[in-house]
């Protein structure tokens, strides 16, 4: 007999005893036994209310009939009944008490069911809310395992089907060592099985409430994992579409950008070859200079494409070593000296010699790209400014001009691939809009920052920092 049964039995005895005492007092006061019987009926109803199930109410009814017969019916202190009216009274009392007890127990049962349903609905709502804000497979599974343990005390282990990853909260859970009882449940998504959850419990049987809770959690894990799969599938589709768009733009840009300088090179070289003995030396020199400029531009384009490919594949390697700032600037200016030959370029460098830990070749490429942009998007009369100075623990490089500046509508996305000063995708001038995206990737890889804005001279300003 468990503790609750003992408690209910004690309550039953006390209520019946109290009903008997009250009835005996009423008898001495001269109250009729018909009224006294109502005391026992109230006692039966009270037993039904303070206990659970039909059993205790039925026992209270039987005890009340026997006590009433023994004390209040003639002959008293015996269980014999001579009067037909007493037999009828006791019979109706017994039937009434049984019916009342049954109805009360049924109402109690319905109230308990309603309360359980409310708790279940509240619990389901709580579980749903907890899972709705969680992202990531691992976080979803760990949340489910923690929820099961906190509400049922059962340890659990989840194995995902697609990766065979296993998650558990307690390191002691091991199939080869665990001697606890085990319940296996499948975690299902919309179209397929997503995994399996193993529940470990020490009792012989898992309670129905706990099993229901575990199944609810397993269902929510499945729904949340399905949501993650759908999100990743959509994200992969979006990335693939973006990759295709970039690939198309790259191919279109390469076709456009290669054709223009190659046409100029072929045309100029053809003129030189056909008229080498007829043209003045100055004209030949100008044509060769044009060929050189176009070749330099092609070389820069190829370098940008290679760097963009390395960045896209995550293979951009930074080989840092101490480089003198003056040497980096001189190297970049030397590379595009042909493009800058007829431009006013003002260079401002620190007075002292400053060395910075960088990949010199890549930083030179950044400066070449920024200077090339300044040449492309400004008139020949505009001045280009290259300033380098120290600010706190950083070296700041600024490339500015006094041209028309940058279209304000594309300031936030100017470092995206295939975006130019004008905001057009693969602009009409020579240039695929790769240079600035490459600059940002290189500077970020060095732990610096690059920004775009308006220069004090009224044109465009590109500034990047490198840590000392």
- CATH fold-type name of the largest domain: Heat Shock Protein 90
Q: Give the overall form.
A: rod-shaped
CATH architecture descriptor name of the largest domain = 2-Layer Sandwich
| H/E element order | HHHHHEEEEHHEHHEEHEEHEE
The main sheet orders its strands as 6-8-9-11-10
Low-pLDDT windows of residues: 422-432
CATH superfamily descriptor of the largest domain: Histidine kinase-like ATPase, C-terminal domain
Chain oligomer state: single chain
For the largest beta-sheet, the strand count, sense and barrel status come to: 5 strands, mixed
**Content of β-strand:** 5-15%
Q: What is the count of helical runs?
A: 11
- Give average pLDDT, whole number: 81
Instruction: Using the CA coordinates, give the radius of gyration.
Output: 45 Å
* Structural domain tally: 4
Percent range of helical residues: 55-70%
* Spatial separation of the terminal alpha carbons: 80 Å
Class by alpha and beta content: alpha+beta
Number of strands: 11
Transmembrane segments: 6-26, 38-67
Catalytic activity: ATP + protein L-histidine = ADP + protein N-phospho-L-histidine
EC number: 2.7.13.3
InterPro entries: HATPase_C_sf, HATPase_dom, His_kinase_dom, HisK_dim/P_dom, HisK_dim/P_sf, Histidine_kinase_KdpD, KdpD_sf, KdpD_TM
Brief summary of the model shown:
This protein is of the alpha+beta class. It is built from eleven helices and eleven strands.
Can you walk through the features of this model?
With 468 residues, the chain is of the alpha+beta class. It has eleven helices and eleven strands. The protein has helices at residues 3-28, 33-50, 55-72, 84-132, 137-152, 208-274, 281-312, 325-335, 337-340, 360-376, 435-445; strands at 155-160, 166-168, 181-188, 193-201, 321-324, 344-348, 355-358, 383-391, 394-401, 449-454, 460-467. Strand 10 and strand 11 (460-467) form a beta hairpin. The chain is rod-shaped.
